[in-house]
């Protein structure tokens, strides 16, 4: 569960700018986009503080299971609504980060309970939290590495033009370069001629040189195929991940009375 959670957490954090740009870029106002970004980074921390207050009342197992179920239900709802519901997509982007970060935070407490159980069941003279946390951290690196790798590989495979799609007739160009723009004569005005030409040809001057308005539109407008593919990634990855995690988390027996007995033994020894 922890490895899969680390995979999903880093998958979200790495691809969040792409999700935001492809699905909502140019379709919502800047203020709305800014609000989504702020909410996506502030609300998870506020939620984590609230979850830590609820741990003594509900227990770690119940809270993690509830977050996993919330992640599954939200993915199912957004899948039914479709990508045209931009308000629902914006809310889901923030909610997805909240549930993911919440599970990651509570998972440390679950590992701590596992260290206590190992101390009691194996009747050790000294607990081994460092070894257990180190082992989980080592395994979590697998998920942390695979999350961005698989995410960007899937994104590149959904793009219309990737390294495998170029034909022999394709000529790579520098962003902003337009072969149809005549060069200015260095001795006939320089930048003044360039500005005049840009004005007459409706060209804006970018960082890499003259850029046509059509180039700007093409750079900021995502094709339907890519948008649909990115939307499917946003929905299906959390859906599949949460199903696997819920099934695996249901097998954990360190909860309820058993966990209470473990805690009592640890406290009595301390």
Poorly predicted runs are: 161-191, 194-222
Count of discrete alpha- or pi-helical segments spanning 4 or more residues: 9
Number of strands: 2
* Percent strand: under 5%
User: What order do the strands of the largest sheet run in, or round the barrel if closed?
Assistant: 1-2
Major sheet size, sense and barrel closure = 2 strands, antiparallel
| Coarse morphology | elongated
Average pLDDT:
76
The radius of gyration is 26 Å
Cα distance spanning the termini = 30 Å
Oligomeric description of these chains:
single chain
The proportion of residues forming helix, as a percent range, comes to: over 70%
Q: Give the ordered list of helices and strands.
A: HHHHHHEEHHH
Structural class: mainly alpha
Structural account:
With 270 residues, the chain is an all-alpha fold. It is 73% helix and 3% strand. The protein has nine helices and two strands, in the order ααααααββααα. The chain has helices spanning 2-24, 30-58, 60-81, 86-121, 129-158, 191-200, 213-220, 224-249, 256-269; strands spanning 203-206, 209-212. Strands 1-2 form a two-stranded antiparallel ribbon. α1 (2-24) packs parallel to α5 and α3 packs antiparallel against α4 (86-121). It is elongated.
């Amino acid at each position: 569960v922890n490895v899969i959670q680390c995979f999903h957490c880093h998958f979200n954090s790495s691809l969040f700018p792409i999700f935001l740009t492809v699905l909502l870029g140019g379709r919502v106002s800047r203020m709305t986009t800014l609000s989504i970004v702020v909410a996506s980074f502030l609300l998870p921390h506020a939620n984590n503080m609230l979850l830590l207050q609820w741990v003594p009342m509900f227990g770690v197992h119940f809270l993690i299971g509830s977050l996993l179920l919330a992640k599954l239900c939200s993915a199912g709802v957004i899948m039914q609504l479709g990508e045209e519901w931009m308000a629902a997509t914006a809310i889901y982007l923030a909610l997805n980060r909240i549930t993911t970060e919440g599970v990651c935070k509570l998972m440390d407490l679950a590992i701590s309970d596992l260290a206590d159980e190992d101390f009691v069941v194996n009747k050790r003279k000294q607990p081994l939290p460092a070894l257990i946390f180190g082992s989980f951290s080592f395994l979590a690196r697998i998920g942390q590495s695979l999350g961005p790798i698989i995410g960007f590989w899937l994104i590149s495979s959904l793009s219309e033009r990737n390294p495998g799609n170029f034909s022999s007739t394709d000529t790579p160009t520098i962003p902003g370069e337009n072969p149809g723009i005549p060069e200015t004569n260095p001795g006939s005005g320089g930048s003044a001629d360039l500005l005049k030409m840009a004005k007459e040809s409706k060209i804006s001057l970018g960082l890499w040189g003259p850029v046509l308005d059509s180039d700007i539109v093409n750079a900021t407008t995502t094709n339907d195929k890519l948008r649909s593919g990115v939307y499917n990634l946003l929905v299906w990855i959390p859906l599949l991940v949460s199903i696997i995690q819920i099934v695996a988390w249901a097998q954990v027996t360190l909860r309820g009375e058993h966990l209470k007995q473990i805690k009592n033994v640890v406290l009595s020894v301390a």
